[in-house]
C-alpha cells in the first residue's frame, strides 16, 4: 500500500517535478507539477489518503468500472481526472502507473523544448 511518504517520493521522482501548496484556504493540499501544470493533487495528511490524477478519458472510465477505489475527480474535470483511494486493494504497481500516466499526459502537452529539457522519453516518439 502506498503511504503519504511514498506518494510524495513517487511524484517528485519524475524529471522537473515540483511540489507546491497554492491554495491559501487549504494550505495542506499538495500539488505536484511539471512545467507549471498539475499532474497530481492530494492532501498528504488526509485519512483516507487519496490522490487525484489526470487520465485519458477512455482509460478513466475503464479504471472506474474495474476498481471501486477509482472515482471521478473530486472538484475537477470528471472526464479527465480520477481520484484514487490509496487505502484498499489497488496494487502499488497500478497506482504508480497511473501517476506516471498523469505526468506523461501533462508533459505531452508542453512545448517540445520543455519536453527535451525534461529528457522525456515520449519526445523521441514524435
UniProtKB/TrEMBL annotation:
GO terms for molecular function: DNA binding. Keywords: DNA-binding. It comes from the Bacteria. The keyword DNA-binding applies. Pfam families: YjbR. SUPFAM superfamilies: YjbR-like. Gene3D superfamilies: 3.90.1150.30. PANTHER family: CYTOPLASMIC PROTEIN, CYTOPLASMIC PROTEIN-RELATED. This is DNA-binding protein. The lineage of its organism: Bacteria, Bacillati, Actinomycetota, Actinomycetes, Kitasatosporales.
Amino acid at each position: 500500500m502506498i503511504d503519504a511518504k511514498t506518494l510524495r517520493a513517487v511524484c517528485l521522482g519524475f524529471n522537473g517535478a515540483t511540489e507546491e501548496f497554492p491554495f491559501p484556504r487549504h494550505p495542506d493540499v499538495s500539488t505536484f507539477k511539471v512545467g507549471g501544470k498539475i499532474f497530481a493533487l492530494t492532501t498528504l495528511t488526509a485519512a483516507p489518503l487519496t490522490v487525484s490524477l489526470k487520465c485519458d478519458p477512455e482509460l478513466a472510465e475503464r479504471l472506474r468500472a474495474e476498481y471501486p477505489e477509482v472515482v471521478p475527480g473530486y472538484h475537477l474535470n470528471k472526464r479527465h481526472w480520477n481520484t484514487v483511494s490509496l487505502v484498499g486493494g489497488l496494487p502499488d504497481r497500478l497506482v504508480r502507473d497511473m501517476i506516471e500516466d498523469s505526468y506523461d499526459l501533462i508533459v505531452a502537452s508542453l512545448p517540445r523544448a520543455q519536453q527535451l529539457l525534461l529528457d522525456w522519453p515520449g519526445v523521441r516518439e514524435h
